[in-house]
Each structure stands twice: as structure tokens, then as C-alpha cells.
Structure of Adenylate kinase:
Amino acid sequence: MRAILLGPPGAGKGTQADTIVKEFSIPHISTGDIFRKNIKEGTVLGKKAKEYMDQGLLVPDELTVELVKDRLLDEDCKNGFLLDGFPRTIFQADALEEALKDMNQSLDYVVNIEVRKELLIERAVGRRVCKDCGQTYHMTFNRPAVEGVCDNCKGELLQRKDDTEETVTKRINVYQEQTEPLIEYYTNKGIIVNIDGEKPIAEVGKNIVAKLRNK
Ligand code: AP5
Ligand code: ZN
């Protein structure tokens, strides 16, 4: 299965990606995670990406597109993949289509997670991420057993730098301007699957898997 997860910041893309990739045995490709890894390692790409991410802006297409195209050539993507946070502009979507065409592949689904703007800020601001394994929690909706400590690896839980109310608001506006047009783009291609992302985490996951299995 070749699929994309679409949705505004805090909609639950990363959370639901875990369920989808396990269910369908495909790799999870998150451009946000790739950029954050590069920032942590202090690479040239990381330094460039950080300038934009800290402000809640999109990293320029020319940095993002090549990165994803390279990743899709990896052996583990041969039988499918789940893209999370890419594409985010019409330019990126066109580039992805071209790249897949060159590989004689095409997209099966675009899972569009719908959540009202009012809920997104609370979700992103309350998010905590394990600094060692990357597991995501929420201070209200998905708490770890011990405050500030990862259930999986006992790592410390940190807040993302771009999860302040101000930057999240900016990211939501950027989403509405630059990414939301993709909903129509993929609706016209007949591959969009709309999901109510306001239900509890487990229920959203079940609904996504059921819809993808029945399509
Ligand atoms: P990225 O990392 O992709 O961030 P995002 O799209 O803003 O999405 P988030 O990670 O904030 O949210 P999510 O939908 O994954 O939600 P989550 O599951 O964590 O991008 C970051 C930055 O990188 C961008 O701003 C940009 O600068 C750059 N970038 C990345 N890709 C790019 C691209 N293609 N082009 C250009 N630039 C790019 O859930 C959020 C919280 O809510 C968690 O705490 C979770 O526990 C909780 N939660 C989840 N589901 C539920 C639920 N159903 N009920 C209650 N709580 C829930
Ligand atoms: Zn951890």
C-alpha cells in the first residue's frame, strides 16, 4: 500500500502512523522526523531546516522534495510506504507524482485526518515527545505512566520547540494557505479517505484501518 497522511498540525498523523505501518507492514516516512533527526545531528540540512521550522514555516520545496525522492528509492519502500507530512504543497504533490511515475508506481490512498482548529492548539501545546525513542504523549489525552518519563524506554519527555501556542498558530495558518489545497487535489484524483480525527486515539486508528481494508 502506498499512502499519504494529510492533516493539520496536531491532527494525529504521527500517532496514527504507528498503527497504520504496523497493520500494513510498510515503512513510515515523516519529513518532520527526518528534519528533526538532522537538527539533532547538526547536519547542513538540519541547520537549514531549523531556520524555517522554528518559525513555523515550511522548509523550501527544493530541500524537501529531493530528500523524499531519495528515500523512496530505498529497498524497504518497494512494496509500499506511508508518507506523513509530505506532500505539503501542490509543487511537492506534483513532484511526488512524477517520481512515482518514473518508478511505475502510483498512490493508493490519501488519509485526510479532520480536526477543528480549536482543538489543534491544545493537542500540540500539550504534546510531549521522548527524547530517546521519539514516542509521542499528551499531558491530558495520552499520559505516560510516570510524569515526564517514557513508558517504552524511560527516556525524558520534552516539548518540541515549535509547539508553543504562537508557533502552532502560525503552523496552522501555513497549513490552511499552502497544504489544504491538497484536499481538493486528491479528491479530484478519487483517492481521498476522510477520517474524523476528533474521536479518541484508538477509535480513530480502528476507523482508518477499517476504511483502508474495505476500499
Ligand atoms: P511535522 O513534524 O510534520 O509537524 P506537523 O505536520 O505540524 O504535525 P505534528 O507533528 O505537529 O502533528 P501530528 O498530526 O503528527 O500530531 P500527533 O500525532 O503528534 O512538521 C514540522 C515542521 O517540519 C513543519 O512546520 C515544517 O517546518 C517542516 N516540514 C515537515 N514536512 C515538510 C514538508 N513536506 N515541506 C516543508 N516543510 C516540512 O498528535 C498531536 C498531539 O495530540 C499528541 O500529543 C497526541 O498524543 C495527541 N493526540 C493525537 N490524536 C489524538 C486524539 N484522537 N485525541 C486526543 N489527543 C490526540
Ligand atoms: Zn522513549
